[in-house]
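Subject: design request, 162 residues
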């Protein structure tokens, strides 16, 4: 009987390890330490060291938010009677920075969906990677006109926005 218990315990441990190693993707339940629906006052307090400012009645902005050695302009949008519902992060950066952001997001949220479009008039390729979870959606998009540099934007959205 002890051998059967050891085998059962070993099998349970293997199942648990395979679940952990398979890397369950994180849910998009907000942005950084802020959850969807957070009130404007709470967000102002949480980000006061980031020099956050009020851009309008439903938008807060951080002009120089540092993350992973990069500078982003961050806009936080609030929905009436709900709270924080969307966050956009925009950076002017090279392709290596974009690839690093893509790698970081993929390791956290899993394999994304992909969409690419080419605007021949402006000679710009728009690439959009997208992750969807029960509580939110995340997209990473870029447009590179000269092949070396451009803008990329990360958008976090609450499921309420869908």
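Subject: RE: design request

Done. Sequence follows.
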């Amino acid at each position: 009987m002890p051998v059967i218990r050891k085998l059962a315990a070993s099998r349970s441990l293997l199942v648990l390890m395979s679940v952990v190693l398979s890397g369950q993707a994180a849910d998009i339940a907000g942005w950084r330490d802020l959850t969807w629906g957070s009130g404007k006052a709470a967000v102002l307090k949480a980000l006061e060291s980031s020099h956050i400012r009020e851009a309008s009645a439903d938008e807060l902005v951080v002009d120089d938010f540092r993350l992973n050695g990069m500078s982003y302009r961050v806009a936080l949008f609030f929905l009436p009677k709900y709270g924080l519902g969307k966050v956009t992060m925009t950076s002017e950066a090279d392709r290596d920075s974009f690839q690093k952001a893509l790698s970081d997001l993929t390791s956290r949220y899993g394999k994304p969906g992909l969409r690419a479009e080419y605007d021949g008039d402006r000679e710009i390729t728009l690439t959009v990677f997208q992750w969807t979870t029960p509580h939110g959606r995340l997209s990473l998009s870029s447009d590179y006109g000269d092949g070396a540099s451009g803008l990329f934007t990360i958008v976090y959205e609450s499921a309420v926005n869908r």
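The beta strands are 30-31, 34-35, 53-56, 59-67, 70-79, 83-94, 113-119, 124-133, 136-144, 149-158.
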